[in-house]
């Protein structure tokens, strides 16, 4: 397991390194996210003529132009979202596959003493579950970083064009939002580590109970085993919630 107190950015940088083999999908995703942000920008800009020239002071020709423009923007944004989601999903799932293969290869080259010190279900959980979490860390995080950043920039441009004073007033709130986001991000990471460890413990407990099912029946400890597993399951429920 990795050091729980290791810096975050080097870990993400290492995970993003696994996506280099799928750079074509990543480029397509970034281009699609740029198009998505531009569509959002133009749709926001469209609100002023939609209200002023479509409802307040209606113009006959705008009754045709505005619906077609809105439809075109929605189609463009939908297509861009589809491309970005598919490209990121393909990249993320490919990274998970590669990591699983590497982890299994690493396991098969470990000395026998390691298997005596660590339970096999914990290792299987790391192979099947922990690697699954990399999908969000390696690909979805990039979408959040790129798409949200571009959207924020586009919306800031619109706000500055509409009202500089209101924009400056809104920017005063940004540091507070940053503090909240930082706190929530750290808590999510702690919870994620707890979920990963908990999945291994649940798998180990279930494996022990099922492997020794005859002894459990002979000694009548079914209730104890169920209670032990139930405590872990309830802990996982709390962490996931």
Care to describe what's here?
- By secondary structure, the protein is mainly alpha-helical.
- The chain folds into 2 domains: 1-163, ABC transporter type 1, transmembrane domain (ABC transporter transmembrane region fold, Up-down Bundle); 173-241.
- It is built from 11 helices and no strands.
- The protein has helices at 8-17, 23-45, 47-56, 62-108, 112-117, 120-128, 134-162, 164-171, 174-211, 213-219, 222-240.
- Helix 4 (62-108) runs antiparallel to helix 7 (134-162), helix 7 runs antiparallel to helix 8 and helix 9 (174-211) packs antiparallel against helix 11.
- The radius of gyration is 26 Å and the shape is elongated.
- It starts with 7 loop residues before the first helix and ends with a helix.
Q: How do you describe this structure in short?
A:
With 241 residues, the chain is an all-alpha fold. It has eleven helices and no strands.
Structural descriptors:
single chain; 241 residues; mainly alpha; ABC transporter transmembrane region fold; 0% strand
Mind sketching the topology for me?
Elements: H1 8-17, H2 23-45, H3 47-56, H4 62-108, H5 112-117, H6 120-128, H7 134-162, H8 164-171, H9 174-211, H10 213-219, H11 222-240
- SS summary, helix count: 11
Any idea what the CATH superfamily of the largest domain is called? ABC transporter type 1, transmembrane domain
CATH class of the largest domain: Mainly Alpha
Give the overall pLDDT as a whole number: 82
Q: SSE string, helix = H, strand = E?
A: HHHHHHHHHHH
Shape: elongated
Q: How many DSSP E strands?
A: 0
Low-confidence region ranges: none
How much of the sequence lies in strands comes to under 5%
How many domain units? 2
State the CATH architecture of the largest domain.
Up-down Bundle
According to CATH, what is the topology of the largest domain?
ABC transporter transmembrane region fold
Main pleated-sheet profile: none
């Amino acid at each position: 397991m990795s050091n729980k107190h290791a810096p975050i950015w080097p870990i993400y940088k290492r995970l993003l390194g696994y996506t280099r083999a799928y750079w074509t999908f990543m480029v397509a995703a970034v281009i699609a996210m740029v198009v998505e942000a531009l569509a959002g920008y133009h749709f926001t800009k469209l609100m002023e003529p939609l209200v002023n020239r479509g409802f307040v002071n209606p113009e006959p020709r705008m009754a045709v132009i505005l619906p077609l423009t809105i439809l075109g923007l929605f189609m463009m944004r939908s297509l861009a979202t589809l491309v970005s989601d598919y490209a990121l999903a393909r990249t993320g799932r490919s990274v998970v596959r590669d990591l699983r293969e590497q982890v299994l290869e690493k396991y098969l080259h470990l000395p026998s003493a390691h298997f005596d010190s660590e339970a096999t279900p914990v290792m299987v959980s790391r192979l099947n579950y922990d690697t699954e979490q990399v999908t969000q860390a390696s690909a979805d995080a990039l979408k959040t970083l790129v798409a949200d950043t571009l959207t924020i920039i586009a919306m800031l441009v619109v706000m500055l064009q509409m009202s500089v004073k209101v924009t400056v007033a809104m920017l005063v709130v940004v540091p507070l939002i940053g503090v909240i986001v930082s706190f929530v991000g750290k808590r999510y990471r702690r919870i994620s580590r707890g979920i990963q460890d908990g999945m291994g413990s649940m798998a180990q407990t279930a494996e022990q109970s099922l492997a020794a099912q005859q002894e459990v029946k002979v000694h009548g400890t079914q209730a104890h085993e169920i209670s032990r597993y139930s405590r872990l399951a309830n802990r996982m429920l709390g962490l996931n919630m």
